[in-house]
Design a protein that fits this description.
The complex is a heterodimer of chains A (417) and B (109). Chain A is α/β, with parallel strands linked by helices and 417 residues long. Chain A folds into two domains: 29-80 and 185-255 and 346-412, 3-Layer(bba) Sandwich (FAD/NAD(P)-binding domain), CATH 3.50.50.60; 117-179 and 256-343, 2-Layer Sandwich (D-Amino Acid Oxidase, Chain A, domain 2), CATH 3.30.9. Chain A contains twelve helices and 18 strands. In chain A, strands 1, 2, 8, 9, 10, 11, 17 and 18 form an eight-stranded mixed beta sheet that branches. The longest helix of chain A is centred in the first third of the chain and has 17 residues, at 127-143. With 109 residues, chain B is of the alpha+beta class. Chain B has a single domain (3-108), classed as Folate-binding superfamily (Folate-binding fold, 2-Layer Sandwich). Chain B has two helices and six strands, in the order E-E-E-H-E-E-E-H. Chain B has helices spanning 35-42, 90-99; strands spanning 3-5, 12-14, 19-23, 51-57, 65-71, 77-82. The longest helix of chain B has 10 residues, at 90-99. Chain B is globular and about 40 Å long. The relative contact order of chain B is 0.20. Classes of the chains: A alpha/beta (417), B alpha+beta (109). Chain A binds chain B through residues 241, 243-244, 252-257, 301-306, 310-312, 345, 401-402, and chain B through 1-2, 15-16, 19-20, 22, 35-36, 38-40, 42-49, 52, 54, 70, 72-75. Chain B: InterPro entries: SoxD, SoxD_sf.
Chain lengths: 417, 109
Amino acid sequence: MATRRYSAFAVAREATRYHSGWERAWASPAPKAKYDVIVVGAGGHGLATAYYLGRNHGIRNVAVVEKGWLGGGNTGRNTTIIRSNYLQDASAAIYEKARSLYENLSQDLNMNVMFSPRGVLMLAQTEHEVRGWKRTAHANVLQGIPTEFIGPKRVKEIVPIMNIDGPRYPVLGALWQARGGTARHDAVAWGYARACSAMGMDIIQNCEVTGVRQSGGQVTGIETTKGAIGCGKLAIVVAGHSGRLADMAGFRLPVESVALQALVSEPIKPCMDVVVMANTVHGYMSQSDKGEMVIGGGADSFNNFTQRGSFHHVEETVRALCETFPIITRLKMLRQWGGIVDMTGDRSPILSKTPLGNCFINCGWGTGGFKAIPGSGWAMAELVAKGEPGPLSAEFGLDRFREGRFIDESVAAGVAH
Amino acid sequence: MLRLTCPYCGAAADETELTPGGEAHLTRHGPGSSDEAFEGYLFLRKNPYGVHFERWRHAHGCGKWFHAARDTRSLQVFGTYSAQVTRPPQDIIDRIAATHPGFDWEAGQ
């Protein structure tokens, strides 16, 4: 399918003919008998993996299979925050790769992903956090990532609607990454899907994987609700459902799935032009282009796959945000939803070979996967194409748990990730 | 909100009154065990899509640890039982089998 370019000219052209010339953004083919690579999961990470397999490594006989609709899982359920102010070098490298790819993603994909580098503030509301963020700022200097620790006065200048005096949660400063921001989550998935389809890859939706075929310790294909499909290599990129796929492939993961939830308010006039994260109270907020306040809350503490979340977590988050942002106390909430996130023991992702030959897994992004999509796809494509991890994914192997080489961001980044 | 009945004090406790303790019936490995066994004990988890057995603590109540059987898809609770056992009681297994035909506790271990 030839894909026509999106441009201002195309909009003008269609405006003269009642927009009758727009085409489907991606094809919807039946699965072929065999592909060089099958990517399971058409979320941002899976589609980005396929895209960079084609673009960076010339592997285009690729299928992306998805049990629901593409971008319908966590890609469509997050709070769209993009930042790379991580403490550990390995995380900083992959998240910064992702953030820098986001800067040109609209041009790369010919799809407006609405990347908005509006700046991300991570509040320090305890002395412990002040020390933690200063340490992170120093680490970021060494990693070449521009961040700075700023005082409460500067925070108030950046976000005038914030109450910095407390008393319960005073703002003592913040870690400021001016080049962080947000992007349109759906457009990221759609843009990658359209670019993959344009390269001749097959995106097969409503196709649930029911089994993994193997022979002599090597993967040979998958069984799906649309029949068996053969493959040379298999990439499992399914976030919260990684455990189910790993079970089919015959290995175990250090991952537990929990629901993480978010909510949005009714739209109001522009009042906050940055992203604010408050890790002590585990709430984060930004204002969407439509004017809704987008609020991210805490994760459920027990394993579940319900994609709902719990109201007491909403209450905890909103209660704390109301003190920091008195302006929001009378806002009505429009929607609340949950996504199933895959948490690892050290809160860092897994991009790894697996005990099954030619089968690779990308999971464990937990509560912070959206920001990593381009970098994750870039690193995963390299891993799948070469069969060995490249510099970005080398530290994120499954064996790090057995060997005690944790990338310990659960302490470094607080709870919010 | 999840509600579990503490098998020790009998109170029907809201989730906010409880602290989750993760997967139940793990075999504890320590010094002298193989790397594989120790990794499995410390990090690898079943994370089932369906019936799950887990540890909970009645933190804001009697303070006791107990076990619960629950479905992670529907949040249906099959029952709670003592933390002093290595196998769920038969009545809970029967209750699970009633809604999950073919459920086999031994096969899942």
